[in-house]
Amino acid sequence: MEPDDIDNGYAAMADAAKHAIAYRRGIATAEHTPVASYAEMLAAFAAPTPERGADPRAIIEELATLATPGIRASTGPRFFGWVIGNSHPTGVAADWLATAWGQNAANLHAAPAASAIEAVAADWLLDLLGLPASASVGFVTGATVANFVCLAAARSEVLRRAGWDVEADGLFGAPPITVLIGDDAHATVYSGIKYLGLGAQRVRRVMCDASGRMLADDFARALAEATGPVIAIAQAGQINTGACDPFVEIAPMAREAGAWLHVDGAFGLWAQASLQHRHLTAGVELADSWATDGHKWLQTPYDSGFAIVCDAEAHRRAMAITASYLPPAEGAERDPSAYVPELSRRARGFAAWAMIRQFGRKGIAAMVAEHCAIATHMAERLAAVPGIELVCPVELNQFMVRFGDDDDLTLATVKQVQEDAVAFIGSALWRGRWVMRVSVSSVATTMAEADVTVDAVIGAWERTKAGGI
Length: 469
Ligand SMILES: Cc1ncc(COP(=O)(O)O)c(C=O)c1O
Hints:
Blueprint (H helix, E strand, L loop, with lengths): L2 H27 L8 H8 L10 H12 L21 H13 L10 H17 L7 E5 L2 H19 L4 H4 L8 E5 L4 H9 L8 E3 L9 H10 L4 E6 L11 H11 L2 E5 L24 E5 L11 E5 L2 H8 L29 H35 L4 E3 L7 E6 L3 H14 L5 E5 L2 E7 L7 H21 L2
Parallel strand pairs: 2-3, 2-4, 4-5, 5-6
Antiparallel strand pairs: 1-7, 6-7, 8-9, 9-11, 10-11
Pyridoxal-5'-phosphate binds next to helix 6.
């Protein structure tokens, strides 16, 4: 690299920061304008493979100009589309440093600060989430991979107890594992099941109630029917309803049966951080492993998930990588890569640490409580309007409404809300019926913004109803 290029590269870093800050300042007050489509974005970026390099500042300028129309306003205050946190500026700033420092958080010798900060952030997470202080934590890309990692540890341990070394000998000839999973589990849990050779089709699905919560008596039946090693997968926070499984009932049953109990708590596990909401996840600490996200309720930038395992030895057995050129961790030292599927990896601990420092225990609890209160308020206002039905009681930060008890009217209202672009809300199928699905998970969202959104939804519904479809 020429000296000029290096200086221009630094200038490009400053330009990127300016663009990013201007964007975030704008989004805090801007309307949710319609976003350019994928096809429009493809056309904007399409170009022949570059033959020659370009000026760093020009590249960043071009990137910001081309991409901005296609940036979904998920950091804005009226984004309710999916459980997407806010990519809080403090987390973004910490992540910028992680990137600029270029640390490879594979190994504590390659990245002492990145490794140490993970160890500290891991302790803080366990404390905030009310989980056993001796559990191990892998800093992964998100809950999908966190579920996979936890289930890999589960597979290792239940087979070890059955006298089988899955890491050495694989699954061929291994004692078959029975996997129990709630009927309303998140689709991504099945990814982990598939990656681990457990077979998405060979699970025993446990019946759930109208809100998607496992029925404890069917769980008991499934456990009683199971033979051999068992992995049971529960969840804290159903993606459409926010419902949490009855851990107080199912965790002792799983323990009694010698089953490994894993909990997918991508967002719902954060109910543990609010004393006011901990009753919703009562007993969750009795499980053997937990998956959760930082990029949802902790508001870290993407990607940030946590794979938490009570049996740290099983966690390491399933994940650790050894090679002579990688000096091992010794004594109480902790190698980040011993708990995740990758070796080379982003230093995710900096952003997680920064966000916990940003909010503190009280701030996280207040945010969870505020989002739950906003969800309840929005649902109550909407359900008071003739023709709008609240599909399930609000339990956490998620809820669903249906319009005119009709799929077409519901989808047309969602479309109208998206076209009006005051707020962004999506749809989902629940028990075979289309619903508008609302997620409250961004620290940018306030009660006032929620009211603006409810007004917009009511307006969209009235126009849809009057105009027909
Ligand atoms: C309950 C649940 N589990 C798993 C996931 C997957 O998480 P991620 O997208 O962070 O991998 C989600 C995402 O919304 C979720 O809500």
